Amino acid sequence: MTKLNKVMNSWIGDLLCLVAGALLTLSFSPFGIFPLAILSPAILFALWLNISYKKAFWRGFLFGVGFFGTGVHWIFYSIHVYSNAPLWVAILTTALFVVILALFPAFNGYFLNKIYPKNHPTKLLCALPASWVLFEWIRSWIFSGFPWLYLGYSQMDSPLKGYAPIFSVYGVSLAVALSSALLVFAILSFNKRQAKNIYFALFTLALIWVAGSLLSFVNWTKPLGEPIKTSLIQGDIPQELKWTRENLQLSLDTYKNLSEQNWSSSLIIWPEAAIPLVLQDAAQYLGTIGAEAIQHHSAIITGIPLKLPNYAYQNTVLGLGIASGLYIKERLVPFGEFIPLKHLLGNLLGFLGLPMSDMVPGARNLTPIFYKNIQFATFICYEICFPEQVRNQDGKVGVILTVTDDAWFGRSVAQAQHIEMARMRAYETGRPVLFVSNNGITAFITPTGKIQSAAPPYQQAVLTDTVQPMQGHTPWLSFGMDPILMLLFVLLVIAYWRMRDGKGT
Predict the structure, then answer these.
(1) Is 1.10.260.40 the CATH number for 222-472?
(2) Catalytic sites, residue numbers
(3) What average pLDDT does range 9-25 have in this prediction?
């Protein structure tokens, strides 16, 4: 073992994993330094070689703590500032959340070095990228899922995004992870003076990036009908005022007045729970604003809660005026909108002083939101972060709509990360996305994932622009997860087969 290897296998290597994880956050919005998404995992991949599976678990965990500790710390604001939980409870809950997320790269390292103990080149070039993406996919559904900060999201402004309409964000993550592995392979080959391997690594790396760039020029969908003049209303109602009864009229007046100033738009959209009053109690208000919209040949789509007979609630989006339909949120936020294992955790959360929500998810196949003959795929808050949920929508959808209230997370990076994922959904599906938030970021997103226009955050604003509905299918819409899962399986099998027959390095 060389002196450098001894240093890397010491605590210095552990520290590098922690720092590399923290730096990875800078590759995502709002920072957007996308090359770091190649360099940071490359450090981890290199430090996973030549160590035991237990050591790989520890280093993966440290990388995850650095990554998620800097990347999702914003949940602290929701717990402490807006849910009024004690400071120590908010810190403890945020830390526990980060630890749970850090277990994913930890188990990735564990199983990688357990199943592939030899450092054959295919372990680095096949098994490692494939297992990384596989663990991202597992994170999208286990424990109801938290598909935040996938490697692929960091490439919305890089050539690698061209893989998204074919394999979704998972394909982009695979291209990123493979780029990291090739970089490590090239450096190791350089140290061993293996010119053929260096040329192979650099050629393959260039091929991946050039192919991604060429794919980004392909138009998978085409326009449907005429562009729709649309106004997105960003009310900027302070979170501490929004849900108090004495300030109810503030919300009602704000959205009504801003809409009446924009009846020249064919479509007006309000954010999630713009009306902080249950649907049943807001019937008169909704009837008045809906009738006024019809008089102006316009439509309003708004978020509003719905109360059920059993005193539970649902988070909904409603079409008014010449719009129709009702969408009920299907995927709820654990601990934010419902309590998993409530019969076991309810007393504990009450003791800790955490608020307990009682939301109920909606069923599929409800009446979609329509504006004239244009069907909208509607999502509330972080539902837009789930590639498969968005992909499961009716192929007749012309526009994707997301209403949200990210004010729960303060002036943090959460809003920029959220809209970055919405941009990926637009590009995967070849559909425009209307992203409407209470206090920002509110934006029109093109079918290629570009920000067409955006309202300034943290202030009241009306963003008016045109949205062009689209039709047709991207490969991702047609085939879903099957191709990418098959590719991951093949890569893992190749690595295992070669490892058994090879001598390792």
Answers:
(1) no
(2) 272, 329, 381
(3) 94
